[in-house]
Amino acid sequence: MIxxxxxxxxxxxxxxxxxxxxxxxxxxxxxxxxxxxxxxxxEPLVRDGAVLAQSAASAxxxxxxxxxxxxxxxxxxxxxxxxxxxxxxxxxxxxxxTTGSPQEARDGEVWARERGADYLDGAILAYPSQIxxxxxxxxxxxxxxxxxxxxxxxxxxxxLTYLGEQVGSASALDCATLSYxxxxxxxxxxxxxxxxxxxxxxxxFGSMLADLAPVLGGEVKHLGEVIQAGEYDRxxxxxxxxxxxxEPLVRxxxxAHINSEFPTxxxxxxxxxxxxxxGEEEVAALVKVLRGETTDxxxxxxxxxxxx
Length: 308
Ligand code: NAP
Description:
Strand content: 5-15%
Mean pLDDT: 93
Helix content: 40-55%
Number of domains: 2
Structural class: alpha/beta
Distance between the termini: 55 Å
Radius of gyration: 24 Å
Number of helices: 12
Largest sheet: 8 strands, mixed
Oligomer: single chain
CATH topology of the largest domain: Rossmann fold
CATH architecture of the largest domain: 3-Layer(aba) Sandwich
Bound molecules: NADP nicotinamide-adenine-dinucleotide phosphate
Strand order of the largest sheet: 3-2-1-4-5-6-7-8
Low-confidence stretches: 297-308
């Protein structure tokens, strides 16, 4: 019997994240139907009261809201791309919490609409242990679908952020956040090598950065405002200051005979920005190099290069 009760949900994908989503929803009184390629992973949830669907199609048909959380969109397509699933989808809200790209989200929305379903795309910026407490989940897609699923999503994520109807927004912001995290991690790992090569403790370095986190967060907020406003001419910290600071990093790596790829990459971008004449501007002007913009001051024509 197909349920239309909004306290009924199906969860497809029971890896580390999907199992936790299902468990938290069970713990909050939802009737949870689950399906996973490897059936054994459903056993703990079934012991706690979940209903095991015999197929992905019957999981889709069992509840008005269907949460999918598998490895990637390729896996999603393998699971959902059958005739049986297609005919079970009409009238459902498909909440895709699998990590993917903005284009995959847009394609997913078209695919779901063609089958009569609403579609939301979400990005989970949290570990499974945070689900049900302070997890951040970004959601984008049709507002009507979001309002239908909002109570459920709020249970999963203390910090639920709806980004509007452009369905690619959640994964776009996820990509942007991952970019920041990856650069921070690479910087941390190179910093760890600097500490090791100079006889300093890496755990003390980590603690010091943790203490600086609010200041670093404030700096990112400020730089975002500068780039959004396009006003680089009142530098709190000039690009030249950062460019000069990047050079000793390269020299230290060479002197200590440690890997120098990260500082060489970073100082290369700052050198390009200096050559383009952005030295006197706010450090955020480095984004102009990434856009492919150049300035007359740098001896080049303003605008975008062929690659920009
Ligand atoms: P996981 O533990 O590796 O689980 C992967 C899930 O995908 C399993 O249910 C697996 O089924 C299924 N799967 C993989 N390939 C499949 C295929 N070809 N056909 C059918 N099912 C397939 O991964 P996870 O940590 O739960 O992550 C799930 C999603 O959440 C990912 O997109 C991830 O980026 C995102 N996420 C995870 C975290 C985290 O900390 N774990 C944080 C944020 C976002 P089997 O059990 O049968 O292998």
